[in-house]
Each structure stands twice: as structure tokens, then as C-alpha cells.
Amino acid sequence: MPDTDPAVKEDLESEAQDETTEPPLYRVLLLNDDYTTMEFVVQVLMTVFNKSVAEATRIMLSVHHRGIGVCGLYPYEVAETKVETVHALARERGYPLKCTMEQE
Question: What is the average pLDDT score of the chain?
Fold first, then answer.
């Protein structure tokens, strides 16, 4: 059985490498409101985004003082799921907490 031509093999490998690109990442953001408690925001950051108490508190304070806080960067489907989860948890507790996502 004859070996394949190394030049053809290289071309195929480089084409395959050119076609694989990283999916875009999306920033998940929490928006400030006058009704959602700081404790609830920290709880959401810890449970939904797996943040430590210190990191969750830092993000919550950013939301409180600047009006917005970045929860993390995720592929589209993961970001979308996290936004929906935050909204569902906020609804359950009667809070108007808003969460959005934007492409990085």
C-alpha cells in the first residue's frame, strides 16, 4: 500500500486547523435595581456562578455602586442558561433582578 504524499497530508492538516476556531464568549452581567437585596445577589453569584463569598461580594458591590457587574465569560449556551437561571431564581423570590449577556 503506497504512503500518502507528505505535501497533501500537510495541506489537509492545515485546512483542518484553519477551520477550527474558538466560539465567541459572552459576558454575563447583573444590573442594579432598588429592590433586590445585596444578600440575594451574593447568594445568586455563589450558587449560579460558583463565586467565593469574597468574589461574590466584590461583584455585588460593583453592581450596587456602578449599576452593573460582570459575573463571568461563557460560551453562548452557557451564558444564556445562567441568565435564565438568575431570572427564575429572582422571580421565585419576588425580586426584579435583571441579568443580561453581551458578546465580548
Answer: 90
45 CA to centre of own chain:
12
User: pLDDT for 57-104, tens place per residue?
Assistant: 999 999 999 999 999 999 999 999 999 999 999 999 999 999 999 999
- How many CA atoms does the CB half-sphere of 93 hold within 13 Å? 16
For the residues 53-60, what does the mean pLDDT come to?
98
Q: Give me the torsion for CA of 36, 38, 43, 48, rounded to 10°.
A: 60
Q: What angle do CA 23, 26, 32 make, to 5 degrees?
A: 175
CA 15 – CA 26 distance, rounded (Å):
27
What is the C-alpha separation between 42 and 75, in angstroms, rounded? 23
3-state secondary structure of 85: helix
Q: How far is CA 59 from the centre of its chain?
A: 14
